[in-house]
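Two proteins follow. First one:
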Amino acid sequence: MQLTFTDYTFGASVATALVLTAPEVLVATGDALTDGESLHAFLTEHGIVPGDRPATVADLDEVRALRTRVRDIVAAPNEEAIVDGANQLLCVARTVPFLGRHDGTWTWHLETAPESTLADDLAVVIGTGLLGTVASLGPNRFRSCESPSCNGIFVDTSRAGRRRFCMPQVCGNRVNVANFRARRRREQQDRPGTGPTGAG
């Protein structure tokens, strides 16, 4: 597989997406990567492999192991640990970066070894994304979800850099609903005659 260094945010988003498939995040539904078919669907959704490449049980085990490594990197305590972990992910490429044309522009490329596994290719995609994030945006973009009921972590590559939740449409909505209900309860308690001793 050949990877171009035109957009580090792609690899960072894949890192986040992979971590969020884990059972410790998806407590209600469990592991999202349960078989070769679900792994294949994940990879195809993120454009990692051609749609006709099957994922094997061995691939599944290796990708799950990679998922744990990526979570550890994103949750690392400092930028040196993040960079070291991401650099280790690139070791599976077993080749050197080279300059080649991409859409008419000279661009850095990295190609994995011919015998590389599906997990190796995924590791290179993620490793370059994490390193690009540190170099361009800094280590403060590696975050834990602010939802008190979530164990998710993520890489924030948004322009504003204000993302608070690993899955804004899920965790963010859950927090907003909880905050709204808490405000309603306080408002009801503050109204005359509606407290615990009120006649209401």
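Second one, unrelated to the first:
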Amino acid sequence: MEINQYLDSTYLKTPEQSGLTEEQTFEKVRELTDEAIAYNFKEVMIRPNYVKLIKDYLVSKNSDVLVGTVIGFHEGTYSIEDKLKEANQAVLDGVDELDYVINYEAFKAGELELVKKEFVEGTKLGLDFDKTVKWIIEIAALSDAQIANLTTNIWTWAQENFEEKDFSRIFVKSSTGFYVTEGGKPNGATFEGVKIMLDNAGKLPVKAAGGVKTPADAEKMIAMGIQRIGTSAAKALLGEGEAGVGY
């Protein structure tokens, strides 16, 4: 199985989170990019402030590796206007894919119209610029019923507002990898959570982010039907090196 083209190789820690300087953090991002080029990964998933530098770097290397970034990260509670502003800047900087954190707290509070509005407007912005859009629902913050309900709503809203040809570019994604759980519970993709997403996403593709640690995990996720895997240990999923504890 060719796992590499399923992999979105990810580095999203800020200098404050990693204890590194700004320069050292960028070097981490560039090393991630060099690795993605060498192993022909699908994408590098990085913070918005690095998009232009890394896109230019990939162009200079004549690489087909995509650049993705996160929007409204990681809490998802940014206003719709702020998310659209951030996404638009990423587009101007050359991004290929936009991974929005959906406002799952608003969803849990019953503010469905707000969540629908940000989904429709955020997705439209991406599709208008021919970008792939992914919606992170943060499954560790949701019950099984909420995972099913939110995924179903996203599928319904996609059908109501976009054409079938667009569905392959509207993903439902499991996790940010930064949600803090209690009692050692996983904060990324789980087989159980991803199955619920797959069962309710209709024709929308699903991305499993965080929690996929071994080649066997990756192969099982792919066999289940996921289209992408977000990982900070992409080489480990190819059987080279070991996965760390974080996303």
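SUMMARY FIELD: The longest helix spans residues 22-39. The domain at 3-238 is CATH 3.20.20.70 (TIM Barrel).
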